[in-house]
Amino acid sequence: MDPERRDAVRAPSASTASGDRGGLGVVIPTLNEAGSLPGLLGDLERIEPPPRVVVADGGSDDGTPEIAREAGAEVVRAPRGRAAQMNVGAVALSTPWLLFLHADSRLPQQTRAALQAWLYSPPQHEAAHFAFRLDERGPWWTFIETGQRLREALTGMAYGDQGLLVSRRRWEAVGGFPPLPIMEDVEMVLRLKRSGGLDRIGAPVVTSGRRYRRSGVLRGWLRNTALIGLYRLGVPPRRLAPLYPPHHVPRESTVPSMTRDAPGKSPAGSSLPSALVLVFAKAPRPGQVKTRLAADMGDEAAASLYRTMGRQVADGLRGGPYRTRICFAPPDARDEMVDWLGDHGLEFQPQADGDLGRRMEVAAATAFREAEKVCLVGTDTPAVDRAVVEDAFRQLDQADVVVGPARDGGYYLLAMNRLEPTLFRDVPWSTAQVLETTLARARSAGLTVQTLPMRVDVDRITDVPPSLLGTAS
Questions:
Q1: How high is the pLDDT of residue 49?
Q2: The three-state (H, E, C) secondary structure of 377-409, written as one string
Q3: Which of 310, 344, 429, 432 has its CA 20 to 30 A from that of 141?
């Protein structure tokens, strides 16, 4: 290594510090992150100029590498393990600045602006992490965020999912990420602090609360706190690793068991709920939703009606013996969706890129890593409520697939007890052949199918229930 590379505190040139595309490289370690990755890649595209992005994949089989390539990211294969993957990704880049991010992270506009400002005039120690924020709201989530802020203030320690921004020469000077099964982020932070310092950028990297949801919020927080404490006391990571859930659930383990429990109950030996409802919705922006309906009543009135139907569906699904997740588009619309639907009893996840089938398939694949039964609905059928969904889940005790046929030849509900990708691929969406094609695919795959009563999808003004016509104003 040449002397300039060994100098851990000499600032890069102004041209590279300004955040040009040759200056910043982003490394994202992945393993079956098809549901989370598109949101982060979309955020990174909004940085001007966009950074180079390398996805270091540990053997995904859910389409993660293809999603990354379609979004313009470079993909490299790496040995499975977050430390090894991040090191391989960093080596694949030639940029003087490196930003390490988890795939389930999001960079809000304020964070992207803070990142660019920091790179324009970085401190002498050339390393920083961001503030910590979860993608959930509520007392327990606030408790975790507050606890992390206190831990930072008292110990200076940061989580790996807060992001790590570091110059290449500092990364090389500390030897990259240590080859540990867990705690690689904690050890990296300690090494950077000991060898020159670590800055804190006040804007947050927003991280998913999925791991806390899987194990229970309080239990997850206590586990993480205890593991970090034990590591700081000298307990080897290899002894701690069995106590920590894997970063990712391999797709092979997502095939649901054939034991069918009542919705909302966990299978034996599992802390995961068995049922998850996915609600597909767009931000209710005039001119971008219900375009066929808008041809009859205008953009503003159609958007107003769409808002009413969406709230009715979300409210009708709250409180059931299942989890409810809003799969929203575009990916930067989370705050807008929460303002519209509220967040009580709801989770939020951006939709993947691609056609409707691709977006549904990715969301369903992600859901089957967390639940045994999955139900997909939209916001076009305001009659869909808790009773309808519970009926679909009950029918999955006797069938592989449950379909709610719509009068226009599509469907308003699709429930499954295992993922069958052919139900989503090469379907003539927005035509009268959707239901027919889906049923034929299910039969070809050897799946048994049950159907619910036919209902009306609201696509034309003649479809609007009289009780809702007054809302279209």
A1: 85
A2: ECCCCCCCCHHHHHHHHHHCCCCCEEEEEECCC
A3: 310
